[in-house]
Amino acid sequence: QVQLVESGGGLVQAGASLRLSCAASGRIHHMYVMAWFRQAPGKEREFVASTRWSSENTKYTDAVKGRFTISKDNAKNTVYLQMDSLKPEDTGTYYCAARLAGLQDWAVTPAKYYTDWGQGTQVTVSS
Predict the structure, then answer these.
(1) Average pLDDT over every residue of 70-99
(2) Torsion angles phi and psi, residue 95, rounded to 5
């Protein structure tokens, strides 16, 4: 289990950009999957993006494809979420998550499969 700390959230206008960071404690095992989820008040937590720690494989929910980019700096044990062309519907608390996974199931999206979670960072997009 790893400890995760998110940062980089804020209040921005529609069309603006933000970059979220997720700093992990210690060394991340090469079979870890790192992901971003978000949750708006009164709504279910939803998958946003994920990446395998040891490869360039990535997965995105359709709502953010072409606008968000997940990336990582392995040497810094940090995962990023670059958020461009933000929309009001992107508003919510963004959580970093991690789990160990094999090659066959690394890209599954339900939050229940993730074992390690940060406390979240708030993103608010105004119109």
Answers:
(1) 97
(2) -115, 140
